[in-house]
Structure to design on (205 residues):
């Protein structure tokens, strides 16, 4: 009998259980923060996750650590989705690449909109320190997209440094207005954003 493999099995099982518990905590925290705001109580999060408060503290030192963990998880998921959209749009006509980019943002927002609304309202647009905010990361990706439009001759080069800011700002505000009015994302939002953006930034003869 291989003693090493018998020792490894319970170790892997403990790791899987810990990962499953942590996943349940993050899902519960997203719900709690979305409904109660960034100051949601740890007791509320533990109850939603179906665990004891002590177990919650075994995974996260305090609410601030949990808030940072879920913000990081949602941020990474959003940026990965946007990066995948940028990759999918590589080599395509700019209008198609732009539509994929907008689709990625709108779809992620639709799935997590209550929590993301809290995040947008609490995360500084220009944080101190070296780490860039989610808005800054999205803007950097929008700049890459805009460059493709300029290179393809679809977007005018003059004023191109503001195209990305206009695109992200427009999307952010349209989605936040919908949340404030308890409305879903407007029907045909992707096409309307694409048309409106190109109408203002499109290269003219």
């Amino acid at each position: 009998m291989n003693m090493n493999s018998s020792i490894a099995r319970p170790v892997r099982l403990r790791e899987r259980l810990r990962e499953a518990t942590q996943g349940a905590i993050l899902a519960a925290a997203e719900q709690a923060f979305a409904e109660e705001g960034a100051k949601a109580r740890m007791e509320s999060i533990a109850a939603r996750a179906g665990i004891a408060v002590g177990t919650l503290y075994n995974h996260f030192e305090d609410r601030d650590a949990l808030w940072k963990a879920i913000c990081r998880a949602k941020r990474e998921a959003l940026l990965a989705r946007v990066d995948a959209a940028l990759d999918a749009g590589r080599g395509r006509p700019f209008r198609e690449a732009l539509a994929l980019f907008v689709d990625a943002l709108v779809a992620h927002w639709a799935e997590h909109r209550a929590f993301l609304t809290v995040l947008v309202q609490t995360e500084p647009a220009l944080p101190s320190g070296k780490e860039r905010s989610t808005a800054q990361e999205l803007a950097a990706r929008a700049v890459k997209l805009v460059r493709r439009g300029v290179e393809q001759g679809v977007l005018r080069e003059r004023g191109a440094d503001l195209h990305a800011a206009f695109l992200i700002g427009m999307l952010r505000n349209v989605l936040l207005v919908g949340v404030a009015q308890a409305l879903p994302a407007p029907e045909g939002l992707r096409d309307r954003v694409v048309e409106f953006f190109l109408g203002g930034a499109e290269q003219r003869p």
The longest helix spans residues 3-36. The two ends are 78 Å apart (CA to CA). The chain has a mean pLDDT of 82.
